[in-house]
UniProtKB/TrEMBL annotation:
Catalytic activity: D-glucose + NADP(+) = D-glucono-1,5-lactone + NADPH + H(+); D-glucose + NAD(+) = D-glucono-1,5-lactone + NADH + H(+)
Official protein name in the record: glucose 1-dehydrogenase [NAD(P)(+)]
InterPro entries linked to this entry: NAD(P)-bd_dom_sf, Sc_DH/Rdtase_CS, SDR_fam
CDD domains linked to this entry: GlcDH_SDR_c
Record organism: Metabacillus sediminilitoris
Transmembrane spans: none
Length: 261
């Protein structure tokens, strides 16, 4: 547990499902005040809010599209109006779809880039602006992927967006370090979330993914949430510009694990 998170105000985009939900519930368990952004109606939203409240945190939810500038501004305003401040911004919302690159439409390209990269930039910009105006030494966490490092055929738009998140994070970390604002990102590997359900429900497809993970299992959303609360806490007070890979070793050239090469 991280006592420094008690009472801190955190906004999590895409906070009602998968990794976002796990982070929201973990920040709640740390007694933070959590604002969950969601894109469309989520049947589990009330259950998530209740879980956070019962674990000792506070919770509120707001609908919004991270690709829309005004929606991001509304999220920040909602957090400040509801809980009085903004200390931590987690830019988690993201999408992917598989398309061979030669068939990738500009519409699909723009949709993924707008959500995964532009949406995170807007979240960073608005959070940093508020923190500067109110002299808050805050923490920003962006959600990247192992595919900021590993090429991924048929997902060129996704890989490009995550490569952009990496350098955006590092640039903002450098720019705002003098103000005490820390900017880091988490790069998950294969995680058992709704977006991966169809793939992992197929035993052969799942086996193929597990073979790429030296630790030999698909990660859990709670394992990513553990990274987020550490990065946001005072335990990571000297950490900025970091990509924290939480991937079971996927980026460590697993083909060489048995001494091949």
């Amino acid at each position: 547990m991280y006592p420094s998170l008690d009472g801190k105000v955190v906004v999590i985009t895409g906070g009602a499902t998968g990794i976002g939900r796990a982070m929201a519930e973990r920040f709640g368990a740390e007694k933070a005040k959590v604002v969950i952004n969601y894109f469309k109606e989520e049947p589990e939203l009330n259950a998530i809010l209740k879980t956070i409240e019962e674990s000792g945190g506070s919770a509120s939810a707001i609908q919004g599209d991270v690709t829309q500038e005004e929606d991001i501004k509304r999220m920040i305003h909602h957090a400040v109006k509801t809980f009085g401040s903004l200390d931590i911004m987690v830019n988690n919302a993201g999408i992917e779809n598989e398309v061979p690159s030669e068939d990738l439409s500009l519409t699909d390209w723009n949709k993924v880039i707008s959500t995964n990269l532009t949406g995170q930039f807007l979240g960073c910009r608005e959070a940093i602006g508020y923190m500067l105006d109110h002299d808050i030494k805050g923490s920003i966490i962006n959600m990247s992927s192992v595919h900021q490092e590993i090429p991924w055929p048929h997902f060129v738009h996704y890989a490009a967006s995550k490569g952009g998140v990496k350098l955006m994070t590092e640039t903002l970390a450098l720019e705002f370090a003098p103000h005490g604002i820390r900017v880091n990102c988490i790069a998950p590997g294969a995680i058992d979330t709704p977006i991966n359900k169809e793939k992992f429900d197929d035993p052969e497809l799942k086996k193929g993914v597990v073979e790429l993970i030296p630790m030999g299992y698909i990660g859990k959303p709670e394992e990513i949430a553990a990274c987020a609360v550490w990065l946001a806490s005072s335990e990571a007070s000297y950490v900025t510009g970091l990509t924290l890979f939480a991937d079971g070793g996927m980026t460590q050239y697993p083909g060489f694990q048995a001494g091949k090469g």
